[in-house]
Fold Acyl-CoA dehydrogenase.
Amino acid sequence: MDILATDFLDAFQELDDSQILIKETVQKFVKNNFLPNITDNFEKGHFPKELIKEMGKLGLLGSNLHGYGCAGLDEISYGIIMKELERGDSGLRSFASVQSSLAMYAIYAFGSEEQKKYFLPKMAAGECIGCFGLTEPDFGSDPAGMKTFAKKEGEHWVINGSKTWITNAPIADIAIVWAQTENGIRGFLVEKGAKGFSTPEIHHKLSLRASKTGSLFFDNCKIPKENILEKTVGIKNALMCLNQARFGIVFGVLGAAEDCLNEALNYTKERIMFKKPLASFQLIQRKLAIMSTEIAKGNLVALQLAKLKQNKKIKPAQISMGKQNNVQIALDCARTTRDILGANGISGEYRCMRHMCNLESVYTYEGTNDIHLLIVGQQLTGIAAFE
């Protein structure tokens, strides 16, 4: 069998039959349902909500959670789903990631049995959309400094404050909101339509345009006392959710990187320059070889993290290393492909510029590149340089 450019070390050649079927199913879904309209959707800033229930039918939402209508897949299978969704667009993977690893996982890990039975089956089916409210206008990399405050008043909690850069916010039916209380940071369920709760969309984005992003505003927002996530006991629980999502990013961005490499290969083999294919030039082959090598390394990182996570041995700093490394690989591949394609690289007819713009956001969301390097640095030295 020939060596695959996007899997040069055959890291993904030993998938079992179910994992292969999952990969092929998601690829088909993305190709037939998402890609035909992505250029227009990206330009218009439109997310295709009509695909959400189809994703639910395919078991793509909350896929690595067990019970409550979720598919209960292994961690490699979850990673494959994220990878194939992001091969289509980072915005599509971001939707599934927030729904699954942030909103659903928060309820799954910290919610009451009643909350899990009520929300998770509907969220797995795509009938209820979730978002995750942690980041605030003044507190991004330091979420523990949040100002949003929840106060217990009789049979209700009253929340005041704001969150920003929240994926899915404008279309969400339920928000997982983290707020200070008299007893520390806790998680809350705030449902769409709650008095004093609004979710305005953020416009004029130049990245993740085929994704809905907004803010969460709380003006004496009253929610029932039962809507607290009782098992939450501090910022560490929010960070546990983020680690679930960051793990998915480790796989997801490789889909974008592979798509860019394939585009570069196809383009350079067909593009004639000085009477011969562009692919015949040494500089081009060097760039292609570097991209293939870095993707191969990223594949090994992703699979090793999946094995650690499946065996419940994974550590947050290891996820940080993987997220930082693989996002950098993907962004470099997108930039290199854009460079190789020249002026054509900025056209929506091709995919690399869209991937590149999206990955600029992935590079800094759910922990910036620098913060993840400092997390690894802390693990190495025992010193928290970001405090």
Summary: The chain has three domains: 17-124, 130-234, 236-381.
